[in-house]
Amino acid sequence: MQIFLDSADKNLIEKYSAWGIIDGVTTNPSLMAKEGVDPKERIMEITKLVDGPISVEVVAEDTEGMLEQARKVASWHKNIYAKIPMTQAGLAAVKVLSREGIRTNVTLVFSLSQALLAAKAGATLLSPFVGRVDDISYDGVQLVADIVQAYSLYGFDTKVLAASIRHPRHIVDCINARADIATIPPKLLDKAVAHPLTDAGLEKFMADWYNCVACQNLYK
Ligand code: G3P
User: Fold this and answer.
1) In terms of CB atoms within 10 Å, which of 49, 67, 116, 157 comes out highest?
2) Which residues of 107-117 are buried (b: 16+ CB within 10 A; e: fewer)?
3) Do 180 and 2 meet the contact criterion of CB atoms below 8 Å apart?
4) Is the pTM of this model over 0.90?
5) Distance 200 CA to ligand 1 centre (A)
6) From ligand 1's centre to the CA of 154, what distance in Å?
């Protein structure tokens, strides 16, 4: 499963891309607004930090407006994908963009029927919102699994990008659901790295090593 970072924070993107684990970045209007900087400048900075798909969301609500904004952001850099909301206008925009070779990430997806429609329209990536489905007492990971199965059954190329990932269990469940990609908030990666047995094991190794007088010359 590929890992994208769900963030527009330059310092955090730099930190986690140094680990060699980041395959792409997703942004949305809320994440951009939180940064309070010029969005184009920030996106261009991100393209220098991560060599992979970078989703930039359109904010127009009609198809023509979405097309204009999607073409604009896609012209900035070869790795930019236009993020298009799962609406009637959005589907019509995705159809045109896919014919123009502009890659899309259809976002705010909450059902299998939406997923089928987006794939038929030509979406490159599809973002089901796992945590927000859970928020309303349904099963977000099951939705991801259902979409993955349907895309495989019907032979769609659209990749499933699990979004709204809230805790490490979601990451594990998305791997088991065969999601192509999960986009993960930075803080969650710290939790995913940590394990109490790793900490305990390391503490014991260190204690044994520093109690061994003969060992101390090795790294001198
Ligand atoms: O990728 C979508 C994500 O940013 C939404 O996450 O936690 O606000 O549902 P959340």
Assistant:
1) 67
2) bbbbeeebbbb
3) yes
4) yes
5) 33
6) 28
DSSP lists the bridge partners of residue 159 as 125
Q: In one letter, which amino acid is 106? A: V
Residue closest via CA to ligand 1's atom 7 equals 164
Q: pLDDT grade, residue 62 (50/70/90)?
A: very high
- Which protein residue's CA is at the shortest distance from atom 8 of ligand 1? 164
- The Å distance, Cα 52 to ligand 1 centre, comes to 20
